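[Meeting: bench + compute handoff]

Bench side (C.D.) handed over the final construct sequence. Compute side (W.E.) agreed to return the predicted structure before the next meeting so the bench team could plan truncations. Sequence as handed over:
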Amino acid sequence: METIKSRSEFERVFTCGKRLSDRLLRVRVARLEDGAAPGKVAFVAPKRLGNAVFRNRCKRVLREAARQWGLPREGVDVILMATKDTHDSHPDEVAASLGKLMRRAGL
């Protein structure tokens, strides 16, 4: 799974991307100029959520949901951000929520 690593890639997705949110996660989706380019994905759990163990559990749940939904997709960069409810949710619930948000984004 190819991930977003550089600050410039994060800034591009945050400035140019579409923002969608749900109780279980928040998503930023940005289409790439070259539609055939391989997409990337990032998993974010801010420090305000809790300690490292809590945040790592949130990112594991997000990773599993992204894997179930087939991310990353070609031509699209996606940032998945955890909420306080992500930690206690099952990856299947988060995947269903992710699917709903991705359909709203037109993917």
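W.E. noted at the follow-up: The first helix runs from residue 7 to 16. C.D. will use this when planning the next construct.
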